[in-house]
Design a protein that fits this description.
heterodimer; A: 313 residues; mainly alpha; two-stranded antiparallel ribbon; 3% strand; B: 256 residues; alpha/beta; six-stranded mixed sheet; four-stranded antiparallel sheet; 10 strands; 36% helix; transport (chain B); ABC transporter ATP-binding protein (chain B); nucleotide-binding (chain B); AAA+_ATPase (chain B)
């Protein structure tokens, strides 16, 4: 079976498994929805990693969308309008910031993103009259196509949106990475000068990926806001950005599936570890990251591919 | 024959080193012009100025009558001037075929986010290109796993994929194993002649120069010391002494 077909099948099987878990273990529905939202966001981190760039500030785009939802929902609680509006807000900021950060590479790119996200975090924290500071903002119950849903129905609706977006963006990113524009991202990593001498403006190649990553982070942020129905500045804090990079490395930086596999494993581990080993769970996280980097640089997906190769050999 | 590229009174100094000290040079349509001279004479600088990589302090470079100075490399390549590099500039995580297809996609100018790079039309053209360069066997190797000769040819193939009218090559045979050198040069000359490409190339190997150049320009300290057909220039005593390194009384050693 071709690798690409296998990957799509594995993705669909994974999606089905998530639905079954969400159905069988109702309290995990919340966790899995958050995992899908983070997975969608991590797809954007993957795009930038493909260009050899690491952003330590992408939680800013998650937070921009989440706060957009929080500000708009009291006046217009329709989810199907909130989602595109919030995603658009993140994308617009991503385009403007991208015009600036696309000039920088590597450590400067990473640090600039970090710095901007921390400025945004401070604003969320300090502008109490608008943002309610660290207390955050609680969301009213939003509507779906005018219907007010409650309890499990609401949870299923948000989970469904997250799953559809996850599948949609996963397919989009796959297509994008195979197309010249996505391939040129790897060109930025290995030989940017060549792109210029082929007549390709490398900065705009990076900008397109950056804007797409902001769009996906915006969708992730919207889902997080709809799921937790409480947004706080912590969404934009640098550890939240670091978490996204962590998930990308854990899942496997080369793979679309890795983003979601990493996010689900991360969220489940976090929930169980935080419940049972509240004091030690960050220690566990650090150890796992070390082990992945040292022994499985391809992440979880890389390990799975290795097992499959060994089996067929 | 008409003038394709014309440099007038080009001047550029790096500190006290004059890389171009009043260069006047016309490149004629469809000729192969070799640039020879000692290291540091300003040969690569001339290519860098013609492709927008460096800006001279004075003078002008026109291509088909249009000023190219001040233009960005990517705009110059769109006018029909491509270049290859002394150190091959390949996308090292891609295969040779993908490298070639990237160049084809870049030339087409449709850097689509949706249709695959190796779509049938691009793949077919890239494969045909690699075949002309004798690179078919290496098509599916990653660019960082190639020997120097293959890397050089891939680099030049990518420049040719841009369908340039003028190709500037910086030491196309340096690093190529001596045994492969003439085969590489013959392949290259054949492909370029078939495509009707005008070529300017910096070269240190006088056998290569004598074999394929129509004219030779000798660079010395930012000036053109001699210019003419290879048989005339290469037999000039000044060129033999200062550039090729033939001492009076016999014994030759190539100027590295």
């Amino acid at each position: 079976m071709s690798r690409s077909r296998l990957e799509i099948l594995a993705g669909l099987a994974g999606a089905l498994l998530l639905v079954l878990i969400a159905w069988g273990v109702p309290w995990l529905r919340f966790v899995l929805t958050i995992a899908l939202a983070k997975g969608i966001t991590v797809l954007g981190i993957l795009l930038l990693l493909r260009a050899g760039q690491v952003s330590f500030g992408h939680a800013m785009y998650v937070a921009i969308a989440a706060y957009t939802v929080a500000f708009v929902a009291p006046r217009m609680p329709e989810v199907l309008l909130l989602l595109p509006l919030a995603a658009l807000a993140s994308t617009a900021v991503g385009l403007v910031v991208g015009l600036f950060v696309m000039r920088y590479r590597e450590i400067f790119f990473g640090m600039l993103n970090l710095a901007l996200s921390m400025v945004f975090y401070s604003l969320l924290e300090k502008l109490y009259t608008i943002t309610h500071g660290t207390d955050g903002i609680r969301l009213p119950v939003p509507t779906f196509l005018g219907q007010t849903l409650t309890g499990p129905t609401y949870e299923w609706a948000v989970f469904g949106i997250a799953l559809v977006l996850a599948i949609g963006f996963a397919l989009l990113v796959r297509v994008y990475l195979a197309a010249p524009l996505g391939q040129a991202l790897a060109g930025i990593k290995t030989r940017e000068a060549r792109l210029e001498f082929m007549g390709v403006p490398a900065r705009y190649v990076l900008l397109s990926a950056y804007a797409l990553s902001a769009l996906m982070a915006g969708c992730g942020g919207t889902i997080i806001a709809l799921t937790s129905r409480h947004v706080t500045p912590a969404l934009a804090y640098w550890t939240a950005s670091g978490e996204l990079v962590f998930i990308a490395i854990l899942g496997g930086a080369g793979s679309v599936l890795g983003a979601f596999l990493g996010a689900v494993v991360y969220e489940l581990t976090r929930v169980y570890a935080a419940a049972n080993l509240a004091d030690a769970w960050q220690l566990i996280l650090g150890t796992v990251l070390l082990l992945v980097i040292l022994f499985a640089p391809g992440g979880l997906v890389g390990m799975a591919q290795g097992l499959r190769r060994r089996k067929s050999a | 024959m008409s003038v394709l590229l014309s440099a007038q009174d080009l001047r550029l100094a790096f500190g006290g080193v004059k890389a171009a000290d009043g260069i006047n040079l016309d490149v004629m349509e469809r000729e192969f012009l070799a640039i020879i001279g000692p290291n540091g004479a300003g040969k690569t600088t001339f290519i860098n100025m013609s492709t927008g990589h460096l800006r001279p302090q004075g003078g002008s470079i026109t291509y088909q009558g249009r000023q190219v100075l001040g233009m960005k490399p990517r705009d110059i390549v769109r006018m029909g001037i491509a270049r290859s590099f002394q150190l091959p500039q390949l996308f090292t995580e891609h295969t040779v075929l993908e490298n070639a297809a990237m160049a084809v996609a870049a030339r087409e100018g449709t850097f689509s986010p949706f249709r695959p790079l190796l779509r049938p039309a691009f793949r077919a053209e890239a494969e045909a290109l690699l075949e002309r360069f004798g690179l078919t066997a290496a098509a599916h190797q990653r660019a960082d796993a190639l020997n120097e000769g293959t890397r050089k040819l891939t680099d030049i193939a990518m420049a040719v994929a841009m369908k340039p009218r003028l190709l500037l090559m910086d030491e196309p045979t340096s690093g190529v194993a001596a045994a492969d050198k003439m085969a590489v040069v013959e392949t290259l000359a054949r492909v370029l002649r078939e495509a009707g490409v005008t070529a300017v190339f910096v070269e240190h190997d006088m056998d290569v120069v004598a074999r394929i150049a129509d004219r030779v320009a000798v660079w010395g300290q930012g000036r053109i010391a001699a210019l003419g057909p290879p048989e005339q220039v290469l037999s000039d005593p000044m060129v033999q002494r200062d550039v090729i390194g033939i001492q009076p009384g016999g014994g030759a050693h190539a100027a590295a």
